[in-house]
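Morning, I've got a small favour to ask if you have a moment. It would help a lot if you went through both lines with me. I owe you a coffee for this, so here goes:
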Amino acid sequence: MDKFDVAVVGGGPVGGFVAKEIASRGLNTIIFEEHKKIGEPINCAGLVSPRIFDFINVNKTSITQNKIYGANIHSPNGDVLSIGGDRIHALVIDRAMLDKEVVSYSKSNGAKVSLGSKVTSGEKKKNLIQLKVKQQEKIESIQCKLVIGADGSRSPIRNIFNFSQPNELLYSIGAEVINTELNPKYVEIFLGRRYAPGFFAWIIPLNSNGTEARIGLCVESKSKNSLKKCFSNLLKTKQLEDVAIIKKLGGTIPLGPLKETVSSNVMLVGDAAAQVKPTSGGGVYPGLVCANHCASIATKAFENDDFSKRFLNKYHKLWSKEIGKELSLGMRFRNFYKNLDDKKFDSILNTINNEKSIGVIVEYGDIDFPSKLAFPIIKSTPKLLKFFPSVFKLNKGSFYFDAGGGGT
């Protein structure tokens, strides 16, 4: 039976980063990736903030496909709210290349990588974890002192070791297309039941000419509108006339971070722990933030030879302190947002479609920390309060977030 210090399950950027950090400290580390190729299949829109490069040492130029300066937000009635334009707000990345670069870097730091390896079961034996790993038709057993589940929205590790489930699971469908005529500096966002009940649809230009794009949408698991129907509606927009699909995309997105992300000898990180922005479904940046803390505490667990839940819970406290509040507030907005009907969307966009409100959005808008915009936009446009009665509460002439526990 092969023995390792750490088994990281999942070869995405989060798992790859964790493995690199741990292996670079001399610990015997292996990544198990169920797919035969790193970065495939792709199920990510690939729109991120430049902050991700604070964590990963990769060639930023080769991974970046385009730079985004703003967004055109389309209301259900056809009105358009245009925001941004003066500075870079996000980067469009080659997600497959990102995954490959990060995992390659983990290998150069000593981590082993096992492709086409699916973890099928696991159990705790004394102070060790024993995993069964399926490779083609062969099942092998391995032992490790610590297993880190970075294995996505439907995490087998989360299920094997009886963690709770995310609050919600979104289903996504998308494609990469050519023959578009887009403003390359702007993403197109579509709201409403026709395109994405409970979420939104997107068109992201992939190059500086606006001739290629990554398109997609998400719907709730309980949606009455099928993914295929919504996607068909998106393809009928004028921005996508005469396009050709060259690659299909799809997947699931977990929302609502887990209340517990560790047990004895086990840690969860990234999508497996639902460390995902509820307002956008983006998981790369928050996943890397949490992965940094995960690797730090994992290393300290070996220094102290302590893999108890109590010790590993330091990781949960650290990531919760850094971004837990942001994710919690995001879920508050999410729970309100998904119940809006098309008329409310039209009214909200009409209310903020003015120079003053747009200026505030441009100044304070942040795709990684959307809550930074909340107070400035409400202060500049008090009429918005009537649309958010379950999110904001008035108190002696001021307002505050109603976070379900006294506000903040």
User: Anything to note?
Assistant: The first strand starts at residue 2 and ends at 9. The longest helix spans residues 309-337.
